[in-house]
User: Fold this.
Amino acid sequence: MMQSYYITRSVMLLSIVLCAILIIANVYLFDDVDVMLIPRSGYLMNIIVLCFIDAIAFIFAIICFIADRKQFSMLILSLSFLSNIFYYIEMIIAIQSPTEGILSVQMMANDISIFYFFRQLSLVGLLVIALVTTKISIEIKSRVKMRLIILSACFLPLIVLPVVAHNLSSYNSAYSLIIADYIKQPSKAMWEPLYINILVVAWSVLLCAIIMLNKLSSDIWNSVIVISVSAIICNLFFQLLDNNNLSIWYMSRAVEIFGKIFVVAILTYHALKLTKVSADASFDNGLTAVYNRKYFFSALKLISENKVHPGFCVMAINVDNLKRINEIWGSQASSRVTLAVVENIKKNIQHDDILARLTGQIFGVILYTASAERSALLAEKIRADVERYAGEENAANIPGPITVSIGALYTADKNCNAAAIGEMACRALYEAKRTGGNKVVLRHSGH
Assistant:
């Protein structure tokens, strides 16, 4: 875990240094030239490459979300790459449109600039929503509602801004927005500095927010830092484009493509890691149809490595006297008890939460919850429901009480590893059993 963290951090810092070298090389090693005309074929190829890279990033971000639906921010992150594709299509159409005369060229240059400006705004907006999503603590009961609110917030940058950009371009003569003007001598597109400054400020604010909230502890958000830095550099290049040669445009495109490739590499690594965990998800047996011990600890390791989690709870649930029930009434009776306990646990946890059989009579639960108080209430409800429905109401058809002891650990500690979390939950369980059983012992970590 630590090795992966330091490798990611080193690569990110190396990327920033490389971008700085590109700036210095462009400013000091190339001479000014008068011709600033960017070939259409070069511009078109650049847009196609970026569109392809963003499509790959969108696919891998979706894979990450499907593999671990608890990481809802990955869905929002995928939408940010999807939004880029909308603008790329608009830009490709604008570049491919026939041009006759200087007025037509001016319209094309301004349209491309409008789509670029709004593409950057949409990307920043969705990345901000994704960043905020990683820090929101969602209570179990309000999880669906909160996710719908977050998706509604994505409507503006994902749908509204592309529509606005389309209507402000030459497609709609009723509205007009002049961001860039085309000058014939020398041949170049002059950007209005205000719009470039807006983009530089927006990316700078996002960059600072990511660093402050995640402190370089998440490989995914470290890759977004690279995107932010490359975007700031690209927009500063546009400021220099008025006074420097054409090579600076190509240099800015190279910086943007390099940043996107870095993100794809990180997302690919993350997706492969998640799918490996899913591939190991064999079930306990045909009796309980819950996850096995291996999957449980793989999932626990994964969430403990996620440094942006708001907090979660791990429970170790022991079925009291299961061995004695098996000895007195036989294996079929103990199977009925086990099934009754599993059904009661399932009724109290969400679909996203994890239930696994760790040993013959111990079950593990990873509960994605918002607070220690909520964890305590849910653990007590599981205990009481098992005692009531499996025991008093005789759901297992056993002439005797059925109870469980629960050891639980709620943690918001970003530096606690999976082994330590599991050990603390087991200690809480042993204490519950040692002090009479049929009770809940909750411990806290990271407060």
About this structure: Residues 101-135 form the longest helix (35 residues). Residues 1-6, 29-36 have pLDDT under 50 and may be disordered. The beta strands are 180-183, 188-191, 312-319, 354-357, 362-367, 404-411, 440-445.
